[in-house]
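Reminder to self: keep the SMILES exactly as supplied, no canonicalising. Ligand is flavin mononucleotide.
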Amino acid sequence: MTVFDTIRNRRSIYEFKSEPVPREAIARVLETAVWAPNHKLTEPWRFLVVTGKTKEYLAEIYCKIQRKKTKSDDTGILRKATEKGYAKIMSKPVVIGVVCKKDEDDFRAREDYAATCCAIHNISLAAWEEGIGMQWSTGGLIRDPDTLRLLNIDPQVEEIIGFLYTGYPSQVPAQKRVPASERTEWFI
Ligand SMILES: Cc1cc2nc3c(=O)[nH]c(=O)nc-3n(C[C@H](O)[C@H](O)[C@H](O)COP(=O)(O)O)c2cc1C
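Structure tokens returned for the bound complex:
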């Protein structure tokens, strides 16, 4: 696949096969992250690969958030939210947390965030080329204090920029875009 093809064909993946993703494939894909453009070479990122028991704990935290969202104390509604929440996280074979260092300097923080987003896109493009799908998630789970405790993140020092739900795609959704030509102005 050319870079053009990979960029054009990559999709966010929401439904995964249960097949596990080999550790070597994940490690290979993560190596592409650190080659993202990065002003001042601050290398502000860390990568947390979550599976097994830790993923179960994460699923429990997600269930807690989902139960709270119902704003209900009806046991049936709460049970349904728990079951749905648990299934949602457990159906992702791997969860990769991408963490960025915080910085007191607003401009530096912004540049580090931008670099980490580039790193995430490197990861998702390299993964796609390996046949691995991902969905970048910025839902409440990445900021929940229980998540940060579980993954040993000090919120004074670091933040999670996204969870990448990762696995072999069982469905690839269609997407569309407005062509760049319609959003481009050429100055001569
Ligand atoms: C910063 C960022 C955060 C995202 N967060 C979520 C999310 O929380 N939930 C979700 O379903 N998709 C999330 N996405 C995925 C987008 O919804 C997805 O990229 C968009 O629908 C376009 O689809 P495509 O990636 O297949 O082109 C996020 C994407 C980005 C770049």
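Points to follow up:
The first strand starts at residue 15 and ends at 16.
The chain has a mean pLDDT of 98.
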